[in-house]
Amino acid sequence: MPKPGLDQKPLLDARDISLEFGGKLILDRVSVQIQPAEVAVVIGPNGAGKTSLLRVLLGLWSPTRGRVQRRSGLRIGYMPQRLQIEPVLPLSVHRFLTLRQRAAKEELLARLEQVGVPHLLGKAVQSLSGGEMQRVLLARALLNRPNLLVLDEPAQGVDVVGQGEVFRLIDDIRRETGCGVLMVSHDLHLVMAGADAVICLNQHVCCTGRPEEVSRHPEYQRLFPTGDVQGIGIYRHEHNHVHDLHGEVHDLHGHGTDDCHHEHGTTKR
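^ that's the sequence the OP posted. Answer follows.
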């Protein structure tokens, strides 16, 4: 939720957004508002228009109808759903981070430190694991010190343990910097528990509100019924330990342990 004392003017305010391509309606009168320090998650079935909505909000596509208003001076950090890099292309993490914008080595190390992987600066991008690559992409999104982080499937290609760590890291960054977060994800069992607001999309906004409100809404239950692999319960991860980038469990002093507690409520999976 927005922190006391922060400017309560929305970072981004989209009203009645519609989008058509080739006579096909992609988005139908969608309204979205993102507040400072808020985590808003867009969920929905495949083909619901989630990535299309992000592209409109980012200004990459113009809506057929409606308007998007961004706060003056808004800095946006964007993390794409996936990034394909030619395996034969000699590309270090250092070079990758500076492809779009120049930054001093100290700044690159500071952003990699922020996501827990400063040791990767000189590594080849092709040698990174899925979890390491997601952290590097997040570091790149943080380079311009954004007021708003826009993340399209930020745990793509990461195992279940790594997904939890990616979402915890995003929440830590939000709390430290006060930035807003707009996220698209299908990992409902993880993101719903950490969201302030959930927007359930299926070309139009089916329902929106706090996670517990949305999970009880008839439209949500119709889209994600019991037995659907994308259905959710309440997920809590008790952190009396940490996971490294390879999924190994350690206690808070860095020693190996098998003591990993995950609690689930009523699960619709």
